[in-house]
Specification:
The protein is α/β, with parallel strands linked by helices. Helix content is about 40%, strand content about 20%. The chain folds into two domains: about 260 residues, 3-Layer(aba) Sandwich (Hexokinase, domain 1), CATH 3.40.367; about 150 residues, Nucleotidyltransferase, domain 5 (2-Layer Sandwich).
Amino acid sequence: MTHSRVSSFLESFGFSLASYDTEKITCDLLEDMRLSLEAEDGGDELMLPTYIGLPEKIAREKKAIVIDAGGTNFRSCLVSFDAAGKPVIEEARKTVMPGTTKTYSKEAFFDEIAANLDYVKDASDTIGFCFSFGMEMLENGDAKIVELSKEIKGERIIGSLAGASLSEALLRRGWKKKVRIVIVNDAAAALLAGFAGKADGKTYGSHAAFILGTGINSAYIEYGKIGKISGISRLKNQIVVCESGSFSRLPKSVFDDEIDAASTTKGMYVLEKMCGGVYLSELASRALSHVCASDLVSNEAVKALSNAGKISLSDMDGFLNAPSADEAALKGVPFAKMSSDFYVLYSVFDSLIERAVRIAAAVASAAVIKTGKGKDASLPVCLLCNGTTFYKTHDFEKRFRLYTYQTLTEKRKIYFEQVSVKDDITLGTSAAVLKDIFAAR
């Protein structure tokens, strides 16, 4: 009875799980990817060529400064590969990502990034810069910033060159050495980590990556011609970053419309706003507000939850992971005496996660399919998965494995291996800057 009441409630707000079929979304994504590779503005996803192919070798015993500018955190360190090819990470630090708390000008934005690197000033003449936003990659290793998502606030940053802008900021802070900066996106770095971090002797047919953290993205190895850059690249294969969060051909609920209206990117990042960690908790908060305004839960629950405020992903996970209603709590509100209310909220939150899993599995499946590889079970496609939302959200990875297996192996006989690698973004970024492909250009 509770399940049908919750389903009816969600449907009254335009939210129906039946509208989110992983196979259909996968096919729609593949068509959008095809259009976006053929021409600029051909589809929703940017499908950004990186001009980075898989490495033949990685420099040994040479240090690189590695920085990871993500949606929430800014990380930096020194990385090298020892004589045996094993990564060595030193001087690792983490701080808040510039632009998350206030609006920055272009100069102030890159000046703060440079200030975060003062402690490794002149420690290397090479910087691997993972910038986890929409970029147009250039063959010289730099990239033009074309989109800022994940609620990063900045003025005149879009359109600037990430590497050149950071280089200028470093000079303003007194760096003596001329630094070579190579820009990668987090999805490209994750893909390279799958290559650099693979077990000795392990061989894959190709590589893809899927990220679900603050936002969502994917990347894969493209072996064919890319229409919109035909005649430009000399590489036999290269990483393409999909910018999957921009995909828009998905049915939206009232909850989605409310979140979009309150965001700084109205009408954009439709898919990301249904899955990304920064939005998934907001979806739960919106849904809870509507639940409390309905007759689904008791007056006692409404009174207890009325001051709950916004729900974080950890709040929702803690609630869903409770072994029973007797031990469940949400924002400090116990449910031992409100078991029926517990089951209502459980069903609502679980439905939000289920939708996110189905969409996420479609994004990852489309990336694997686009490699054109994996038809030989002995040479599976390596799918590296990354992100706190992916690994820590209640039952997310378990369901994701099921949907990707059904979509890829059961339906298409495409074989893949889902992997994780410790310090993957750091490792992949260092591989990008220390690999021989740039020297060969």
